[in-house]
Specification:
Blueprint (H helix, E strand, L loop, with lengths): L15 H8 L2 H8 L6 H11 L1 E3 L14 E3 L2 E3 L3 E3 L12 H12 L4 E2 L7 H7 L4 E4 L5 H13 L4 E5 L9 H5 L10 H8 L2 H15 L32 H10 L3 E7 L2 H10 L3 E4 L13 H9 L6 E4 L6 H9 L4 E4 L1 H33 L11 E3 L5 E2 L2 E2 L2 E2 L6 E2 L21
Parallel strand pairs: 4-11, 5-6, 6-7, 7-8, 8-9, 9-10, 10-11
Antiparallel strand pairs: 1-12, 2-3, 13-14, 15-16
Helix pairs in contact: 1-14, 4-5, 4-14, 13-14
């Protein structure tokens, strides 16, 4: 599939930001790009990667290297997938379908959002391996009805988002007028008219093909329209959702069951005891609780408590080196959101495919430069900035990686940041 003409100069995922900002109305751009309150957690997600350094090994035969990775009983061609992103079809025409199609061709996982504007059944028809991420009410009848719909759609991997007991305070997007549902007004109209490529290429095209978009997958039936003068009749109540509900759902759900939004090793232990198949280490891209710990900083301690679960990671990944760092710190797989959202907006399926290829090549190149042939060999390629692992209460030992190396009794340095000793090298 050829690269879309407007993406010919996109050579890394970060190149997508400026192009997407120019293409999208301001309200939609702000909704997708910003986090909660002062954006500290969103920005912290990226800065956390700057605290991790890699140490190459030389003169290793890497001619037969592979970036394939096993996850939940399937082998994928790359160690990353597409994270769930709500209202994607407002950014790009049929975005969720284009994620699904591109992911199928590339043989990577795609997690469909519960707040998508395209029915899950349609997306599952396009890609039988699609996962579904659900926002569930604290009501077991509602959970049962939604999970039954997911199963009947042929979806076997169910992800419950657990870090949204109440909505996040995304004040920037609210000021721009983006909320559920969007309220039509002069400002929104001017915003749309000033971006004719999006207006004709996404919004009007969607209206002509399938009508006014709705939130399609919150429950067993179709939800509210994305644009309405009326407030929804019923607000979703999630603040009562608890571990007992997860145990009940675990007993009921026949497929793989995961939770998304874990930042605590204590919660990881409980998840393992509940019999979950995996969890996402995530702070929701910084979109819920501002000043929540960057997900990468929480990853090593969580990975140490995973038991038989798979540890999946999202929040902040933009480069192949980011993917490698997360894997080396204990993740089994990583997921990326915003860059694929922008790729879908700009180039539909071909745009998403191009973004996948760019990241795949970066990962492939990085492991060669590190002297590794397999992803499981990455654990001893880290140089660690001490400040990355300083907890609020002090310094605690942290389980490191797949090689079971442990950072023990680190010195506390004053002044400019210094580096700890690296783990013993055994990668071959």
């Amino acid at each position: 599939m050829s690269v879309p003409s407007n993406m010919q100069k996109v050579k890394c995922l970060e190149d997508l930001d400026a192009l997407a900002k120019a293409y999208l109305p301001g309200s939609i751009w702000e909704f997708g790009s910003t986090g909660a309150e002062n954006n500290l957690s969103r920005e912290g997600n990226r800065r956390a990667f700057d605290d991790i350094w890699l140490q190459p090994r030389i003169l290793k035969d890497v001619s037969k290297r592979s970036i394939k990775q096993d996850l939940l009983g399937k082998t994928y061609d790359a160690p990353f997938g597409i994270a769930p992103m709500g209202a994607s079809a407002m950014f790009g025409f049929e975005a969720d379908l284009n994620y699904a199609r591109a992911a199928k061709v590339a043989n990577i996982p795609f997690v469909m959002s519960g707040s998508a504007l395209i029915p899950m059944e349609q997306v599952a028809e396009a890609n039988s391996d699609v996962w579904f991420q659900a926002y569930v009410d604290a009501d077991r009848d509602s959970i049962a009805a939604l999970s039954d719909r997911v199963w009947q759609a042929g979806i076997k991997n169910l992800v419950i988002t657990v870090d949204v007991p109440v909505p996040g305070n995304r004040k920037v997007s609210l000021r721009k007028g983006f909320e559920y549902p969007m309220r039509p007004g002069l400002g929104i109209a001017i915003d749309a008219l000033s971006h004719p490529r999006w207006l004709f290429g996404t919004f009007l095209r969607t209206l002509l093909s399938s009508g006014l978009p709705h939130i399609e997958n919150y429950g067993p039936e179709r939800g509210i329209p994305i644009i309405s003068m009326k407030a929804p009749e019923r607000k979703h109540i999630r603040d009562g959702l608890n571990w007992e509900d997860m145990k009940w759902l675990r007993d009921r759900w026949q497929g793989k069951l995961l939770i998304k939004g874990v930042l605590s090793p204590e919660d990881t232990k409980t998840a393992a005891a509940t019999g979950l198949d995996g969890l996402f280490v995530s702070n929701h891209g910084g979109r819920m609780l501002d000043t929540a710990v960057p997900a990468l900083k929480a990853l090593p301690e969580i990975a140490a408590e995973k038991g038989a679960m798979s540890i999946l990671f999202d929040s902040g990944i933009r480069r192949g080196t980011d993917v490698v760092k997360a894997l080396a710190l204990g993740a089994d797989f990583v997921f990326i959101g915003r860059p694929f959202l922008y790729a879908a907006a700009l180039g539909e399926q071909a745009g998403v495919a191009h973004a996948i290829e760019l990241l795949s090549q970066e990962v492939y190149r990085t492991i060669a430069q590190l002297g590794c042939t397999e992803l499981d060999e990455l654990g001893d390629r880290l140089y660690l900035l001490l400040s990355h692992f300083v907890s609020i209460s002090g310094i605690s030992p942290l389980a490191m990686t797949r090689s079971s190396a442990v950072l023990k009794s680190p010195r506390i340095f004053s002044g400019s940041p210094s580096f700890t000793a690296k783990a013993a090298s055994n990668c071959s």
